[in-house]
Amino acid sequence: MVKPSDIPLPTQPLQSLPDNAHLECPEELLKHIEEDAGTLLDLANQSIVSARQFDRERVMQLCRLAAKYETTAVPVQRPLTGKILISAFYEPSTRTRLSFESAWHRLGGDIMSITDPGTTGIAKGESYRDVAEMLSSYGDVIVLRDTDQNAIFEMMKALRVPIINAGNGIDEHPTQALADIFAILKWRPDLLELDITEDRKIRIGIIGVPGRMRTVRSLLLLLSLFGYAIKEVVIICNTREVFAKGQREELEQRGLTVRVTTEMDAELPNLDVVYINAIVWSGNSYEEHGTEYCLTKDSPLREDAIVLHPLARGSELSTDLDETPHNWYFAQARGAVYIRMALLTCYVWLF
Amino acid sequence: MVKPSDIPLPTQPLQSLPDNAHLECPEELLKHIEEDAGTLLDLANQSIVSARQFDRERVMQLCRLAAKYETTAVPVQRPLTGKILISAFYEPSTRTRLSFESAWHRLGGDIMSITDPGTTGIAKGESYRDVAEMLSSYGDVIVLRDTDQNAIFEMMKALRVPIINAGNGIDEHPTQALADIFAILKWRPDLLELDITEDRKIRIGIIGVPGRMRTVRSLLLLLSLFGYAIKEVVIICNTREVFAKGQREELEQRGLTVRVTTEMDAELPNLDVVYINAIVWSGNSYEEHGTEYCLTKDSPLREDAIVLHPLARGSELSTDLDETPHNWYFAQARGAVYIRMALLTCYVWLF
Amino acid sequence: MVKPSDIPLPTQPLQSLPDNAHLECPEELLKHIEEDAGTLLDLANQSIVSARQFDRERVMQLCRLAAKYETTAVPVQRPLTGKILISAFYEPSTRTRLSFESAWHRLGGDIMSITDPGTTGIAKGESYRDVAEMLSSYGDVIVLRDTDQNAIFEMMKALRVPIINAGNGIDEHPTQALADIFAILKWRPDLLELDITEDRKIRIGIIGVPGRMRTVRSLLLLLSLFGYAIKEVVIICNTREVFAKGQREELEQRGLTVRVTTEMDAELPNLDVVYINAIVWSGNSYEEHGTEYCLTKDSPLREDAIVLHPLARGSELSTDLDETPHNWYFAQARGAVYIRMALLTCYVWLF
């Protein structure tokens, strides 16, 4: 007879973190930024619509706080206990929604989610103002994603609580851009030095369409705050209309040097940061741009170049890069929770 | 070179409350009702199916507690910590669902939501009794909305935890009616005086179909508890069948004077409260009633008349009323969270 | 005039538990198992994919902890405070999802749910590995149900947090099997005695298809840990292919005596436990098996036989059995929360 103890017992132990987690980096970033929480204080009474609402000091302090969260195993305090986030994703999204909800939960707050656009009042013809009036009564902070870029502006006419833009059509996605900057500053905290020497300035390549991609639009606005440390931004793009009206002029006025090219492989050997994205969500469908651009481990990347991607990815970013040191896109995604925790922490002062 | 500090920084400060919030009113209502929590004690072991389950004393005490919540910035206690609400919306709804969930969260409880009827056991042919057996095991209180008016009664045959009717077909919506009464009593706390003088009694107009609209059906039942303060209820309606079988008789037995007319504009100058609704959800589609009735700021409303609407609205309620003193529908919607908090608080005694 | 106090006030008092709740049983089970929490300690760093990962000692200790939870009215501690469960149901399910979420909430944790497969990255072609990388960053424990039996294995290649299999295609459903065993051991704690006498050994009938039903597959693996107390397992099944390749051999090697028959009524008088199931979810549709088998109160069941069913049921299990002492399927469903609480408690040691 088989004794119970003779039966084999397979196990499924957890993996440890891979090398590309870059967990030492937030520690390093912390050393480069002096705490000045007052800077964040006036974010407490603001809705976040555009990357234009962040100056260099605010970005620095948010990254500082995010780095602090990333290096703290377990947050002991739950400052948002009793506060309700309404997570309204009228354009479906798992990644951004979970990242915001995770951040809010880790700060102790409760969440109500709207994930099925078809069942909502808006789908039945309710006005944005009426919805905003409702959300103001039932929640403390709103996170909104909508295919209609005007939705957030319409809602703000009636809202009495802060709203955060989690992607409005092809317009902006400011918190994604904060996550991008957080990744870049963890990789190179010395970019914060206003007197950075010429040889340490970086060249950033963006494979994407600034005029159509909300992630790229917001990122460029934040990058312009660090123009003193950036040799140039090279837009790699083969569409006819690269920029929206006035977009390039605004970036140059803000101090960013921008160049446009269609040749990716010619640029890669000179780039320190390569940001790539291919999908534009527009209404209920998507456009794919730049399908002829594809980064792989055989691309002529500089040895020390990092690759960023807002994810989810398509064929433009080969998985064979995952195990290389170029892979900073997973660290970028992981940091998205901490930077959103930092931003949401500001609202603690509101209550 | 552009210095980072030269870049302009637009802000998006929050709006303060508009004048029509009526935030002073709950304070006033509090003064009119003496606390008697014992009245609410026996709601703790009850399911809430019908507005018939509330007498005048219970409605008063619930409104008292709601007013207390509305005037308390932050509830310090979280009496429902560890308790689970199952929010089962087999008929989709954002407004009522969020209002219940917000109330439960503000009392400290956790929530599990069912928002996609198509994926549930019921859609696959599971019986209401089996679902009720399951919900009893996994939650502490159930909130149910269903297009089928019998669902809640079928479930109650097997449920061992309280269930609250959040709209059952064309039958009832008792907590909406509580929110309506809460708004009316905040506006005129003197309606609570049993010896109210004739000149202060009110005339209420209801533009809607009592026999087909669950909100109207429940509201009329609650209004009948205050028959001593109501001159008459005028039903403004142009359908052939205004009442369900026995409905008018029941209301009159409960002490309500009811009159029916098709002429809205002739009545408006004599009405103190105008309640309007046009939509009847029936099964998975809706009927629109009274599309020829439309309230605007040019309607011949009395100067001091208030307008109520369960929302979401259609064309029957013009947005040009929003900025007028007639607008009490936003205050009514806002109060819905507090009256639901009051009702849910009763279950604290159950645990 | 009608006085408000004259209006009748119907009530809807709650029901007490029916007799088939078997609430005295977990107390009895507790007495039969000596506490040895160390056994559960090494589950803390494991994902749960298969029933093969549980030996008899682990099953006993989990059942012990579950019985403790079932007999404790209100858990005072909230050990998972601040921890996030991602409840990812790419194959829709209400019952299993709510049961897991209820368990996690009762331990104090927060939850993010994915319930609408159509809106997720996976539906848009995102790889399981990328999804796993994301989930690792945003949650602390993952519960996954997927129609694709390989999804969990693909995800585990990239996951850094534990994942629990809540049903992977036609492969396994290990926590359902734990709930089944928990019910059986509450009914007969003496089955834990390794020197059980022949006359007290039991005969178990399974009406279902071991090779196609994940619930049956996992249950058989757990039953084999108690082979010393089981005379035989009788599979009642009329499909051509009863077992998957190697399945019967594995069970026999693990010490289970298995016999297959097509005749239900001939077997019933000799069975102590009758487990019945008819539905196999396969991809996005389902197959029905054994529709000619139907248990009713007129079936020739032994007087003291118990009936188990993973629910939701179809016509194979008549509701006329609900009020009989054979009904242990409701106790089994109720116990599912407690056994999942026990399993999830193990992760407390991880944090």
Q: CATH homologous superfamily of the largest domain in chain A - what is it?
A: Aspartate/ornithine carbamoyltransferase
What gap, in angstroms, lies between the N and C termini of chain A?
Answer: 67 Å
Largest sheet of chain A: 5 strands, parallel
Radius of gyration of chain A: 21 Å
Which regions of chain A contain 5 or more consecutive residues with pLDDT less than 50? none
- Give the helix tally of chain A: 11
Give the strand line-up of the largest sheet of chain A.
Answer: 7-6-5-8-11
Principal-axes geometry of chain A comes out as globular
Number of domains of chain A: 2
Along the chain, the helix and strand elements of chain A come as: HHHEHEHEHEHEHEHEHEEEEH
CATH class of the largest domain in chain A: Alpha Beta
User: What's the overall average pLDDT of chain A, rounded?
Assistant: 93
> Judging by the overall fold, what is the CATH architecture of the largest domain in chain A?
3-Layer(aba) Sandwich
The strand count of chain A comes to: 11
Fraction in beta strands of chain A: 15-25%
Q: Greatest interface and its residue counts?
A: A-B, 52 and 46 residues
Q: Describe the oligomeric state of these chains in a short phrase.
A: homotrimer
Structural class of chain A: alpha/beta
